[in-house]
Amino acid sequence: MLQQTQVSTVIPYFNNFIKNFPTLNDMAHAPLDKIMAMWTGLGYYSRARNLHRCVQEIVKQGGAVPKTQEALKALPGIGEYTSAAILSIGYNQPYVPIDGNVERITARLFAVQEPLPSSKPALAMLAKTLNNHEEALVRPGDFAQGLFDIGATICKPKNPLCLICPLSDVCKAHQEKIADLLPKKQKKAEKPTKFGVSLFIQNSQGQLLFRKRPEKGVLAGTMELPSTIWSEQFPSLEQAIIETDCKGEYKKLGDIKHVFTHFTLKIRLYALVGHPDFITQDQKNIWLDLKELHHYPCSTLMRKMIAYSVKT
DNA sequence: AAAGCGTGGCA
DNA sequence: TTGCCAAGCTT
């Protein structure tokens, strides 16, 4: 959960997961659908599948979380960082988990001028030397937590609080008064904007028409309103009706904007006038009361669209 | 190996 | 408003 996600965001999700799945065994035997539904709003939905597969694999192997980095990294969703975090915090082994905080601290401590991400290997080499002190090696977990907390609260990306930093004595960037300029970043490509049309379709019982997105790609496996693919410009309503196979008379509701990591999305919303007579009950068409939507995985984008449609 | 993959908070 | 960034992993 914490991968690329702030602690304050994770806490309520974490508590809910622990309540529903007190043991690895509980989660391993839960349906993926339930885990996906509980992940609603947290983003990066492949993490939910990986977590489920990971727990199932551990239970299959006997139920003990592996104690070697090699075995941990072989599990779905666990890479260099997470394996090191488990080993240091969970098993008190002398690993240094290298996240964005540790990279930033390291870049400043050693005044690394090379920009991210190409400096990652060099920063990793340097970061792995940070625990070469007796106190650090006695309590590897506390040492790792300490690095995270310094990064999050003192050695911040902007306006680092060097005046109260316990590392300022040994920080090369601070000595050179360039802490706030590091780490340097390579320029990112400009975000493209994509456009789509989505349809708000309610039946006579007040249920909404949903479909399930493909298991790969953006928002994989989450529920969505019938939608066109997202392309270079707004598709016409006619195109949307053909593409979604939802014939009928529609009225325009308005446009919604949503920002993803690597593109911006603009969605034009239409609502069906009256009730549909064209939708057959089949595999891809799913009618849901809004009250039962929480049993299904649903992106924040889709919740935004639904809220907008209901209000309009 | 570079790109794909969410969302929310904050300057 | 916009851009940055967060306890990264996968392909």
SSE map:
Elements: H1 7-20, H2 24-28, H3 32-38, H4 46-60, H5 69-73, H6 80-90, H7 100-109, H8 120-127, H9 134-138, H10 140-153, H11 172-175, E1 193-200, E2 208-212, E3 223-224, H12 237-244, E4 250-259, E5 264-272, E6 286-288, H13 300-311
Helix pairs in contact: 6-10, 7-8, 7-10
The structure holds a DNA duplex (11 and 11 nucleotides).
- The helix content is 25-40%
Count, helices:
13
Give, in spatial order, the strands making up the sheet with the most strands: 1-5-4
Q: How would you describe the shape?
A: globular
CATH architecture of the largest domain: Orthogonal Bundle
User: Quick one: how many beta strands?
Assistant: 6
Reading the helices and strands in chain order gives HHHHHHHHHHHEEEHEEEH
Characterise the protein shown here.
- The strands form two sheets. The protein has a three-stranded mixed sheet with strand order 1-5-4, covered by helices on one side. A three-stranded antiparallel sheet has the order 3-2-6, with no helix packed on it.
- The longest helix has 15 residues, at 46-60.
- It has two domains: 7-181, Endonuclease III, domain 1; 193-311, Nucleoside Triphosphate Pyrophosphohydrolase (Alpha-Beta Complex), CATH 3.90.79.10.
- The chain is globular, with a radius of gyration of 24 Å.
- A hairpin with a 4-residue loop joins strand 4 and strand 5 (264-272).
- It has 312 residues and is of the alpha+beta class.
- The model has no long low-confidence stretch (mean pLDDT 96).
- It contains 13 helices and six strands.
- It binds a DNA duplex (11 and 11 nucleotides) through helix 1, helix 4, helix 6, helix 7 and helix 10.
